[in-house]
Design brief:
- The protein folds into two domains: about 140 residues, Galactose-binding domain-like (Jelly Rolls, Sandwich), CATH 2.60.120; about 100 residues, Immunoglobulin-like (Sandwich).
- The strands form five sheets. Strands 3, 5, 6, 8, 10, 12 and 14 form a seven-stranded antiparallel sheet that branches.
- By secondary structure, the protein is an all-beta fold.
- The N terminus is likely disordered.
- It has no helices and 22 strands.
- Helices cover about 0% and strands about 45% of the residues.
């Protein structure tokens, strides 16, 4: 038989059997060991590959819209505009891009292209030919670059837009954008054509300022005609009796002083003038002409002069229409 001792702090206090005593050694208590491994990483290095073998004058974007298969791939119109390739209206060749939709100031189209390897620091020129379809109102357009100018675009001929900017490496993409704005506050067109769009690498070329030429807003000439001297005349019947009446005419100057006046009317009911005062009166049948005298012809603005007459009538005595002219 094998006895199984009971241990308390490494001391045997009881035995299950006395036939044979086996006292096993108790292993010492060992705490787990934590091992920390430190890995040293080398610093991260970013390598930029830049193309340096681009010849001066190389076109990095060159779009002539001659291939129907490529169409207008890569062109992005602003909201409300659409782009399509069309035949028969072109600056060179037969194809061009038609931009359709109501243009607003600053709206247009753009073509962007990414490059890997990246492009070097250099001056890049941006250009495109544009034209309006027949009947569209003239508009100002430009390529949206650092150095550029507005150009007047019409429906009579193709017009070149041009600009440039200096870009510093890394140059990861190029974007050719064409925008429009109203010409002298006029309406905007609803379509325009684009052809032969290019972005060209110019190396370290020094390019000058781009003047804004090709248009002047039309001048509006307002011709003011000075109002001449005027007058008005009022005819009235002061009193009447069988076969006759007393007439009176009042003349008033207009907004300017007058030096003299002439009043005229035509009787329609057979009336005649028998006697007059305050005016020089002449008759020719039913027509009557009365002119001022030396003392009552000059009138200040709004001033009045009155003359009268005795007339004869056969019964009906209608009021005639009176005219007045001043000098």
């Amino acid at each position: 038989a094998v006895s199984y001792p009971v241990y308390v702090d490494n001391a045997t206090v009881a035995t299950a059997s006395s036939t044979q005593m086996v006292t096993p050694s108790r292993p010492p208590l060992v705490c787990p060991t934590t091992t920390t491994t430190t890995t040293t990483r080398p610093p991260t290095t970013t390598t930029t590959t830049t193309t340096s073998s681009i010849p001066v004058g190389a076109a990095l974007i060159d779009l002539d819209f001659e291939q129907a298969a490529s169409g207008v791939t890569g062109w992005v119109p602003d909201t409300g505009l659409t782009v399509t390739r069309v035949e028969g209206a072109a600056h060179a060749g037969t194809g061009s891009m038609r931009v359709t939709g109501q243009l607003s100031s600053g709206a247009g189209v753009a073509h962007a292209r990414a490059y890997m390897p990246q492009l070097p620091s250099a001056v890049y020129t941006y250009s495109a030919y544009v034209r309006l379809p027949e009947g569209q109102p003239p508009v100002l357009m430009r390529v949206d670059t650092a150095h550029t100018a507005d150009v007047l675009v019409t429906d009579t001929a193709w017009t070149r837009l041009y600009g440039y900017q200096s870009l510093s490496a890394p140059v990861t993409s190029l974007s050719l954008r064409i925008i429009a704005k109203p010409y002298c506050g006029g309406p905007m067109p609803t379509e325009f054509l684009v052809d032969d769009a290019q972005v060209v690498h110019m190396g370290n070329a020094t390019l000058g300022a781009i003047p804004q030429v090709g248009f002047d807003c039309p001048m509006t000439t307002t011709t003011t005609v000075a109002e001449g001297p005027t007058c008005t005349a009022v005819y009235r019947v002061v009193s009447s009796w069988p076969g006759g009446f007393l007439g009176e005419v009042t003349v008033a100057a207009g907004v300017r002083p007058i030096r003299g006046w002439t009043v005229g009317w035509t009787f329609a009911d057979g009336q005649t003038v028998q006697q007059s005062w305050g005016a020089g009166l002449e008759t020719a049948g039913p027509a009557v002409t009365a002119g001022n005298l030396s003392w009552n012809g000059a009138l200040d603005p709004g001033a009045r002069a009155t003359f009268g007459f005795v007339g004869a009538s056969t019964g009906v005595n209608g009021t005639p229409t009176v005219t007045c002219s001043a000098s």
